[in-house]
Design brief:
It is a single chain. The protein is mostly helical. It has a domain of about 50 residues. The protein has four helices and no strands.
């Protein structure tokens, strides 16, 4: 069912109405088309704003990048410094522990040396220490 039938127009009235409406509709559509085309041409040919980079903006951008790079370099160098300090502290602690161990070994060796010297002196005596006074008396008798 067409629009004309819904509105209750007869076929004759619909043809006359469509015939009269068609030139007006065509003209309206043509005017609309022309206005859209002229609007498009105007929008296409108008100068577009280009982002103009002013000297101040360039310096701000460069300063931002420089500051960012400086912060990054500072963070990295701080990390490297902390790692180096920790390694150095570990090395010093290790050397101190080694020195302590060496001194303990030297002390133990000295004590063992003293003990061996005492044992050697005890073994090399002609007379035990308890009988030494008697041995001295005998030595005096032999010398007379």
């Amino acid at each position: 069912m067409s629009l004309d039938e819904r509105l209750g127009k007869s076929e004759g009235e619909a043809r006359v109405g469509n015939a009269a409406l068609e030139p007006e509709l065509k003209e309206a559509l043509q005017n609309f088309r022309l206005s859209v085309q002229s609007w498009s041409d105007a929008a296409y040919s108008r100068p577009r704003p280009v982002m103009e980079v002013h000297g101040r903006r360039i310096w701000r951008l460069a300063a931002g990048w420089a500051l960012g790079c400086a912060l990054l370099a500072g963070a990295v160098s701080e990390g490297v410094h902390v790692r180096h300090v920790r390694q150095e502290q570990a090395r010093v602690a290790y050397l101190a522990e080694q020195e302590k161990h060496r001194l303990a070994l030297e002390e133990q060796a000295r004590e063992e040396e003293e003990l061996l010297a005492k044992v050697d002196s005890d073994v090399s005596r002609e007379v035990p220490s308890a009988m030494e006074p008697l041995a001295q008396m005998m030595a005096e008798d032999d010398s007379q």
